[in-house]
Amino acid sequence: MSKKIRQLPPGQRIEIQISGLNVPARFQTEFVGIVNNRWFIVMMPDSKKYGELRDGLYEGVPIVVRFVLENDNGEIVAFRTDIEYVLAHPTKMLFLDWPKSVESRVIRSGRRFDAFLPVTLDKLDETSVVGSQQGTMMDISESGCRVRFELEEEADEVAESTETKIQWAPSDKAKLQVHQKNREPVVLTAIIRQVHKKDRGLELGIQFSSQEKDRINSLFSGSLVDIDALSRSQ
């Protein structure tokens, strides 16, 4: 599976998670290159965005690397490794040990992946926003996602929320804002396809617009997939 690493172009954005901390810490950085079967090399994260995290990056720290490989199918690739060297000159870079194993999953085959990201869903009429609601994206595929809102126990109507009492129905038009840590929200236009009440919550099946390919791909390059979940799905 290391051939997936060799297909990664220099300059691509990747995500790194410091897995040795009690609270998961993630940052985005730039892939520099490889020394085959020895090192995977990345830039030190930006000091303005990730100043505090940089103090936790030193030799021996265990991390998880994730990136989206743009090939014919489109794949999420992830692996565990350790920081072997921190290079200060001529610019700050991290030399990571070559991974013993690499996980990958196709993201354009209709499969869904767990997400668990906070979202804001705006209901639209022909000209404006008629209501907004905070919820959680439960899973996602290239074509759509599932969003859950919690309901009050006494709520009797299926399409009623605790916050805005928005009535959701199939074919409603919506704008979905997906919030990721340390990144700008990803905004997608969408259509509601399914509305279900489940376990004192409201779950919406949402279809993305066919024009949103680039924004959807940016979601997959963010904090979507847990490497443990990838392993369990095999």
UniProtKB/TrEMBL annotation:
InterPro entries: PilZ_domain, Split_barrel_FMN-bd, T3SS_YcgR_PilZN. Gene3D superfamilies: Electron Transport, Fmn-binding Protein, Chain A, predicted glycosyltransferase like domains. Keywords: Bacterial flagellum, c-di-GMP, Cell projection, Cilium, Flagellum, Nucleotide-binding. Residues 108-215 form the PilZ domain. SUPFAM superfamilies: PilZ domain-like. Residues 10-99 form the Type III secretion system flagellar brake protein YcgR PilZN domain. GO terms for molecular function: cyclic-di-GMP binding. The keyword Nucleotide-binding applies. This is Flagellar brake protein.
